[in-house]
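Example record for the data management plan.
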Amino acid sequence: MSRIILFVLVLLLCLSHTSLAAEYHPCQGRVVPPRNPRAGDSVNNDFGGVVTAVAKDSITIRWVNLPNEPPKTFAVSEALAAGKVPVEPRMLPGAQHAYLVLPEEMYRLVDVKVGDCIAILYARVDGVDICDHIRIRRRPGSEVPPLPKAAEDLRDGREIWKAKNPGKPLPEHFAKVRYQPYHEWINAYWAKVAPMPREVKAKP
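Corresponding structural encoding:
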């Protein structure tokens, strides 16, 4: 009897792993439906998927788990439309606290290409959904581009420290550790998990 129970448990475990694998997508990890923003104006809402169109004042994204749904078009913030690095979080009138913007979420609109797998943070203001921050997670068939320097400096911290402490040597914790820029890290990650056979690129 105990062997039968053990067999059933093992079978259920295998089925659960198969189900999880079917729900996983390289653009956004485990696939779940997008969350609806809070009622009224809101910020720091998340969305992601495959970029299907990029214009000077909008970006269109297809959520990978909803193949029968049309892609969703977002207006873009003034900073993104102007080609700037979106460093600052959007603050709604009367808001007391700002949300955290990670350096990886500071790609410019001009850095994005159709086909990119991205994640965004967006605001809903007066019923309009506005893309404020972009993270490029994968560029199928190519490599994720470097972050803008201003964003990479925030991620690293070395350049900021140098600017605040001119002429002084870097602290030991900076000097000992080799810093890996975001694009190097994410491209190395995808190279490791890409299915075989992989294209092997010769080093220059």
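Summary line stored alongside the record: The first strand starts at residue 24 and ends at 25.
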